[in-house]
Design goal:
The protein has helices at residues 3-17, 60-71, 84-91, 95-106, 128-134, 161-164, 210-217, 243-253, 282-292, 317-325, 347-362, 431-441, 480-500, 510-515, 553-559; strands at 24-29, 37-42, 48-55, 113-114, 121-127, 140-144, 149-153, 156-160, 167-171, 183-184, 190-191, 231-235, 264-268, 300-305, 333-336, 338-341, 366-370, 390-391, 399-405, 411-412, 419-425, 453-456, 459-462, 466-470, 473-477. By secondary structure, the chain is of the alpha/beta class. The chain has 2 domains: 3-57 and 92-171, no CATH class; 190-559, Peptidase S8/S53 domain (Rossmann fold), CATH 3.40.50.200. A hairpin with a 4-residue loop joins strand 6 (140-144) and strand 7 (149-153). It starts with a helix and ends with a helix. Residues 1-17 form the signal peptide. Residues 207-562 form the Peptidase S53 domain. Its cofactor is Ca(2+).
Length: 562
């Protein structure tokens, strides 16, 4: 008998001899569909659903401890990043969990496939009738009114008591992701305003180019030397990076390097990167032009995620981190300029995705996300009476980047999303910084936010009227989408120096950042109003508008031991 046949036979015997799976425990329950969704009617029994089953990791607490151990400068293990096998051993579900879940699936004549190397995500496609049976659910068709898109969802689902403790989340089930929330966090391009190629310091007060960033932050123009040091740029929702636009950008704004300098394409989920001018994406071009054009000589990979998601309505966020984490050699930096509101994702799903970022960081990758453009209204502007949190910016295992503008002084951008998570508590590495801010703030905005939550952003960078070339035209864009690739480029250049000196890359940044706040340019003016209130105000030290501040390359290099 083959190994596969033996495995299937063992599952069937487990199902036959095992429990009847008749006693269910409710996992999630909603009183009604969220605002913006309308019930259409029952979902057809034959409609296929690709269920993603997130299993509880056997030792995430151990992974978290290991992550901080290799990421905290005072630790003896600082920089000793984990291997793929070591990380997967922490993430993998227990043997009991696998046996129980597979037996439950086998009792329905189903066998799931692993969705990632660690095996804590499983995938199985079933018709609605089967999903209703195995989850004690009632899947119905719901329409997102604004977009007209329809989804099969259930307001409640349950799991057998024998497997409930082993399953962290099921998706899609009772999470209603807003299809319009995952989008680039930046504004439409503004026409160019006669900016000079050299971008003198005076012009940098209103218009940002690579030369401005080099002047403001001390970013070097010398070429990086280490080919093993890479930056991964995330691409979603059919945003494509155009090589002709990159060439034009370099000819205009980086005349000191070859205009043929380009990026490498990676694809997943049917992703692509068509090169016609009409397909040029403002977001993708921005992200590529301010990594290739600022992190001089650092190899850049554009990772284009297509629409054939393996993670359902997680829109490829989980797919890309699993894809890159499963590589033997991970990128040293990943920057993502997309996000949504924390409330658009269930807490259980958000926690599992955040775990994936922790695993990625433990491998030695600095994970950076734009904090969002909704001020205190979350990842995107919305109607609200209490401050909203952005996602994934509130995850404590990544570095969230806010926006500033101006040069003397730099000032918080009003749209810079910042605040406190409603899902995660304040992280240990930032506890003193957050406490100092809350003490200084006093009773201002009391009751409008979760004062015990993880504070974000962690850092910031320029994010207004940043010049790009898209579709052959030069113009300026605003958004934290500008800030994340800029900060990522600084980290990429520091990693180059570290690797050249025989050291490890920085990896998960936050413990290092909060341990060395003086290496950043503190921003003390500006605010991010919203929800009909004043929002937060930038002040000395960390604040939930600009974080710890903007890059100072020389001081950061020194803090890295170089």
């Amino acid at each position: 008998m083959s190994a596969t046949a033996l495995f299937l036979a063992s599952l069937l015997s487990l199902a036959a001899a095992g429990p009847a799976f008749q006693n269910f425990v409710v996992q999630e329950s909603l009183s009604g569909a969220p605002q913006g969704f309308a019930k259409v009617g029952p979902a057809a029994d034959s409609t296929p659903i690709n269920l993603r089953i997130a299993l509880a990791s056997s030792n995430f607490a151990g992974l978290e401890k290991a992550l901080y151990d290799v990421s905290t400068p005072s630790s003896a293990n600082y920089g000793n990043h984990l291997s793929k096998d070591e990380v997967n051993a922490f993430l993998a579900p227990s043997d009991d969990a696998v046996a129980a879940v597979q037996a439950w699936l086998a009792s329905h004549d189903l066998v799931a496939t692993k969705s990632n190397g660690a095996g804590d995500w499983l995938s199985v496609t079933v018709p609605v009738s089967k999903a209703n049976e195995m989850l004690s659910a009632k899947y119905e068709t719901f329409e997102h009114v604004a977009s007209g898109k329809t989804y099969a969802r259930t307001l409640s689902y349950a799991l057998p008591v024998e497997v409930a403790d082993h399953v962290a989340a099921i998706h899609p089930a009772s999470t209603f992701n807003n299809p319009e929330s995952l989008r680039p966090v930046l504004s439409a391009p503004k026409p160019a305003s006669g900016i000079s190629i050299d971008a003198t310091p005076s012009s940098c007060a209103t218009t940002i180019t690579p030369a401005c960033l080099q002047s403001l932050y001390g970013i070097p123009t010398t070429k990086a030397t280490e080919s093993s040091n890479t930056i991964a740029v995330s691409g979603f929702i059919e945003q494509y990076a155009n090589k002709a636009d990159l060439t034009s950008f370099l000819k205009k704004f980086r005349t000191d390097i070859s205009s043929s300098t380009t990026f490498t394409l990676q694809t997943l989920d049917g992703g692509s990167d068509p090169q016609t001018a009409s397909k040029a994406g403002v977001e993708a071009n921005l992200d590529i032009q301010y990594t290739v054009g600022v992190a001089t000589g650092v190899p850049v990979f554009f990772v284009s995620v297509g629409e054939n998601f393996q993670d359902g309505d997680l829109e490829g966020f989980l797919d890309i981190v699993n894809f890159l984490s499963d590589e033997d050699d991970v990128p040293q930096v990943m920057t993502t300029s997309y996000g949504e509101n924390e409330t658009d994702m269930s807490k259980a799903l958000a926690f599992k995705l955040c775990e994936a970022y922790a695993a990625f960081g433990a491998r030695g990758t600095s994970v950076l996300f734009a904090s969002g453009d909704g001020g205190v209204e979350g990842g995107q502007a919305q109607s609200c009476t209490k401050y909203q949190a952005a996602f994934p910016a509130g995850c404590p295992f990544l570095t969230a980047v806010g926006s500033v503008h101006g040069i003397s002084p730099e000032t918080a951008s009003t749209f810079s999303s910042g605040g406190f998570s409603n899902y995660w508590g304040v992280a240990d590495y930032q506890s003193s910084a957050v406490s100092a801010f809350l003490t200084a703030q006093g009773t201002t905005n009391k009751g409008l936010f979760n004062a015990s939550g993880r504070g974000y952003p962690d850092v910031s960078a320029q994010g207004e009227n940043v010049q790009i070339v898209s579709g052959g035209s030069t113009g300026g864009v605003d958004g934290t989408s500008c800030s994340s690739p800029i900060f990522a480029s600084v980290i990429g250049l520091i990693n180059d120096k570290l690797i050249a000196a025989g050291n490890s890359p920085l990896g998960f940044l936050n413990p290092w950042l909060y341990a060395n706040p003086s290496m950043l340019n503190d921003v003390t003016t500006g605010s991010n109003p919203g929800c009909g209130a004043k929002g937060f105000t930038a002040r000395a030290g960390w604040d939930p508008v600009t974080g710890l501040g903007t890059p100072n390359y020389a001081k950061m290099l020194a803090a890295a031991g170089l």
